[in-house]
Structure formats: structure tokens, C-alpha cells
Amino acid sequence: MPRLLHRSPAARSWRTTPAPTEVLAFHQGLSDYAPTPLHAVPALAGELGVGRVLVKDESHRLGLPAFKALGAWWAIHRALQDHPGTEELVTATDGNHGRAVARRARMLGLRSHVFVPDVVSSTAIDAIRSEGAKVTVLPTSYDAAVVAAASAVTGRQLLIQDSAWPGYEVIPQYIVDGYSTLFREIDVRPDLVVVPMGVGSVAQATVTHYRSTDSAPAVLGVEPARAACITSSLLAGQPVTVETSTTVMAGLNCGTPSSLAWPVLRDGMDVSVTVEEDEAIRAVEDLAAASISSGPSGAATLAGLRAARDALELTCDSTVVLLSTEAN
């Protein structure tokens, strides 16, 4: 299928307010907290004609193989303050978010119920169950699983969802705020930050962080061609829902943008691009050759950088940060 690409020339001048500073303090107070590494990959810098390619490696974060606990655990912390007496956490997931919610529920002595579309791998489903969660597998899409999870919440249950819609935006904003720790750990001034996109929440966190500081790098968002809800929305000039199918980038297999992410990405993200399955798989292999474990959803950022290279204003002195969100 044709590659989709959207550019917003005014994005770097857009500004917003940062996430609360207490988010980082919360994470630093967790027993398993440690900043994740930023790996230099000279071979990729040479290939792409830039000064440095640095990979933010989220393959080990708070005892889990992905970055999602940063958002989920902060959101749970804040949401339980707002909703005392909660007994069960409910969510929908295409993998890592659901496991992070289930892990934190178990740590806090709460029950968890996770709704999963049947395109999610049995390995990922077993990992969620291993955290003590009740798992409901549905023969449907991620978007429909979110609807099912939201509809199931009653009484002392609480929905912890990483996508927002009108009427449900407080907890998703907590999740986005939680991701800010990842960017506060990055101690370089990049010229470009590349981030994967599902519903757009971590991309929202990226734009929020870098559009609320003196440093204003370009931001490139990357999503699967088979689930291109953000890029399609940007090209349409309004949020749209797209039909999704199976993709190796399972964590990005989302058909509808988050209502919170949409205005931030519309106004503050420089470039958005889609990538194909084989491009993501090649990126996984190339990062593995650099001793970085990255699944297709995380390695999509390298695939997207390659795909959008000619549309980006980069030089031989530029520093590029790729966000690799998960282990392989």
C-alpha cells in the first residue's frame, strides 16, 4: 500500500506546559526504578548520514519488558487517590499496558481484569495471566476491546485505559504524564526524537515534553501502515477511525486516536509516517545486531526514520533519539 506521510512546518513553534514534576519523584521512589540506557549506534548514524543515533532502550523497565509501567503505575497511584475503595482494575490491551496494570494490581493487593483482542499473541496473553489477572479474549479489534472493558466497569471497579475519549480523559492524562519520566532521563539535546504511535499517547508525551522546554527538537511519529489512525487523521485534518488488521507491530495496532493526543499531535508533531511489516522486521534485526532487544513496535522508530529520512532536516552533525518501547 502507498506510504502515508504528513508534515507540519509550524510544529516546532508550538508550546505547551510540562507534566507535573512529582511524576519523576514517584518513579524514583519505586524499589525497581532505574533510568533506562541510551545506546549509541554508530553504524546507524553512518547509514543515515547523521552525527549520532541514540536508542532509548525500554526493554527492562520496573521489572517488565516495556515502558508501559511508567504511565500505568503513576495513573493507578493518582486514580486510587481519586477513587478510594477500588477493588479491581479493568483495562483493555494489545499487550504491554495490560500486563503493567495487572502487575501493579497484584502488588497493591487488588484484582485485575484485562480485555484482549484475539490478534494478540498467546505469549502476551499468558504473560498477563501470569500476573494474576482475569483475561477475557474477544474475537474483535483493540478498539472494540476498549469499548468492552469500559462497558464492564461497575461498582468498585476502575478503568485504567491508555486511550481517551470525550468523558474519559482524566486517567489517560495521568498515563501520559507518567511517560514524562522517560524523557526527563534523556540527558542530551536531540535534533530529532522518533516515537512509535498506537492511539498516540506516548507521542503526546513526547511532544508535551519537548514543546515545554527550551530545547525544541523535531518529533517524528511512526505507525504501521495496517493501523495508521494518526497519520490518516492528520492528512484528513480531523480524527478518523481506520480499519485495522493483524500486524507484527502488535502494540501499535489501534484504529482510533486518543482524544487527548489528537490536538497535541496535530499542533506539535513535525512529521508522521507509516511503515510496512518487512521494514519493522528489518529494524528488529538491525537493532539486535547492535545488541539492543527491540520488538517490532519499538523498532518501528528505526523503520520510520529510514522511511522519512528525505523529509527530515538532518545534517551530519544531528543527534537523533529513537524510542524503543519494548523488548523482543
How would you summarize the topology of this molecule?
Elements: E1 5-7, H1 22-28, E2 38-40, H2 42-48, E3 52-57, H3 69-82, E4 88-92, H4 96-107, E5 111-117, H5 122-129, E6 134-138, H6 142-152, E7 157-159, H7 170-178, H8 180-184, E8 192-196, H9 201-210, E9 218-224, H10 229-236, H11 261-268, E10 271-275, H12 277-289, H13 296-308, E11 319-324
Parallel strand pairs: 3-11, 4-5, 4-7, 5-6, 8-9, 8-11, 9-10
Antiparallel strand pairs: 1-10, 2-3
Cofactor: pyridoxal 5'-phosphate
Keywords: Pyridoxal phosphate
Protein name: Pyridoxal-5'-phosphate-dependent protein beta subunit
At the fold tier of CATH, the topology name of the largest domain is Rossmann fold
**Total number of strands:** 11
Number of helices: 13
N to C succession of SSEs: EHEHEHEHEHEHEHHEHEHHEHHE
Termini distance? 26 Å
State the CATH class of the largest domain.
Alpha Beta
Strand order, main sheet: write it out: 1-10-9-8-11-3-2
Overall pLDDT score? 95
Shape designation: globular
- Percent of residues in beta strands: 15-25%
CATH-scheme architecture of the largest domain: 3-Layer(aba) Sandwich
* Secondary-structure class: alpha/beta
Domain Tryptophan synthase beta chain-like PALP: 33-325
Cofactor: pyridoxal 5'-phosphate
Protein name: Pyridoxal-5'-phosphate-dependent protein beta subunit
Keywords: Pyridoxal phosphate
